[in-house]
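Appendix B: complex inputs.
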Amino acid sequence: DTAVSQTPKYLVTQMGNDKSIKCEQNLGHDTMYWYKQDSKKFLKIMFSYNNKELIINETVPNRFSPKSPDKAHLNLHINSLELGDSAVYFCASSHGTGTYEQYFGPGTRLTVT
Amino acid sequence: GNSVTQMEGPVTLSEEAFLTINCTYTATGYPSLFWYVQYPGEGLQLLLKATKADDKGSNKGFEATYRKETTSFHLEKGSVQVSDSAVYFCASRLKAAGNKLTFGGGTRVLVKP
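Resulting structure:
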């Protein structure tokens, strides 16, 4: 009965590869987010989707392409992976784009070698 | 712009000690303020929040008061337990900035028995 789930939990890959991270929420929320947490624990928003439409894009390289097939899913595809992409990626969801609590997934630790 | 600054860790305490984590914000307006907690290997969980000046958020023995005059939202707990060991994030959210969460750098707290 996990509220926000992500797969995989760990992902180790080589530079130049393309990989995807999946996120699903069963809370009935209509807004989903991707955050990146670097090695120093600094956390920053990357994207936000509301009802499958992109509403926040925080100057993320276009190698990162989010896709929302429906309101319950927000996947993150990364092309041509670089060493600097190594981080923990968190998915979150909320009920609307206003002042609603965001619920976070457990994170996906991506290591690029 | 909107930014959050919190004290760097790690903060190491003995059980039953008093904990304070400082957090200050800058914003062109009056943001809502939050404290999130990240336990080892898990995603972020909302700990408490305050939406206007002089509001006090509280949960699990933690408290923080929204101080407009000092633009601060310091987190306090009177008697910490080993289970409070985690990384704590202060965050702000401003409607004029699209309601996206802006996080501080996180403070790692280690409570020793």
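Residues 63 and 76 of chain B are 5 Å apart (CA to CA).
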